[in-house]
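Feature request, filed as a ticket because there's no other form

It would be nice if the structure record came with a short human-readable summary line next to the tokens. Right now we just get the raw output. Example of a typical job, pasted below so the devs can see what we mean:
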Amino acid sequence: MWKATRGKDTVYLLGTIHGAKFDFYPLPVEMDQAFERSRHLVLEVVIDRVDVEKLKPAVEAISYYKPPDKLSLHLSEETKRVMEEYLRWSGESWALYEKYRPWLVVEMLAGSRRWRGESFKGSLGIDRYLLSRARNLGKAVSELETAEFQSTLFKNLSDKVQDKLLQVTIKHLKDMDEETKAVVKAWKNGDVDMLESYSRDAKKDPDLAPYDKVLLDDRNIGMAAKLEQLLKTKPGPHFVAVGAAHMVGETGLPNLLKKQGFSVEQITAKPAGTEPSAEKLVKRRFPREGFSIWLPGQPKRSASLIQSIDTVSFEFNEIPDGIYYIQCITIPVDESKLSIPGPLLLDKLVAECTRKYNVIGRKTISIEGNPGREADYVPKTPRDIPAGLGKEDIGARLRAVLVGRKVFMLLAVGKKPWLKCSHVNQFMDSLELAK
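Raw output as currently delivered:
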């Protein structure tokens, strides 16, 4: 990820991976917090607006040969030879591929192989994750390209280049599992040089430079120009999330924005903070629920079981200042078996808890590597003020953390000056999970 600034413009640039696994989430706190500070999400294409049926005719026109024309008539002898080797190895036949143009066969072979055995899913891709968060939080969403443009991207790619692309792809299929692991490692490490080495097909064969130009260079220039337009029409900060290959190299978006007068810096994750000190608070341990936390005194415990969801609550009152509240919720299935990434579940949970209030601030937090969300909010009407706190200016801070099958909810409700005091901050920061 990069941060680009120019005058009043702030742009965060995140190189994404279009397929992911559950263990990609939570994203580093720096990414989530930059996203939350941004008012505008910019993607390659806004996926949930795409009309697939409408695209079919255009896609088929550039993807399929019209009989009697067929794939094997357009391939060199060397490419047919390596294709036949692949077919013998896979147990497939020419008939399966003859109607497709070489570039689409490349997509079929590489796409099926790239994530094999790695539990990668397109539905868990970072682009889709951020789009879901933007929809949940009501952020503006724009696109740098269109689905129509992407679907016809290779219509002018010559037969010679397509032939070499298919040949090189088949020759490297056996290495694709290791390459995928290397790309993911480089992405997690922010290793720009390594990512570039895997993003450029011309590094495997110089004859593929025209393919890199169509796939990356020309599109990057177009994306930078479209982004410049959006900066003039959409309020920022702006969060741009496109494929990581568009971020690296001389024509990568960070370098193109530098040429447009931006100051650009790469952002890396910082190590987790240390345990807070406490003068008045004491560490309280709750072995049955698997956590400890700093509190001014022993809280009152209560438990309930509703629709297979086990909930245990702890409450400590410091009337007239405020209330410390902890809730431990055990969900029916483990985080890895949820239908959506855990952080999106937290978004929905926090939104439900605060829907009757005015939210005045949000941010992402992480506790021991586990995803978390925080929201500050205020009552809409006097009847929403807890008993005993009077009619003073009241607010609340909510934290939600997902750990396996457990959701820990931390809540502080009280006078706004009390919410800003060191004891409340220590309470919020001191959740420690049992080893």
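Something like this underneath would help us a lot:
Residues 209-233 form the longest helix (25 residues).
The chain has a mean pLDDT of 87.
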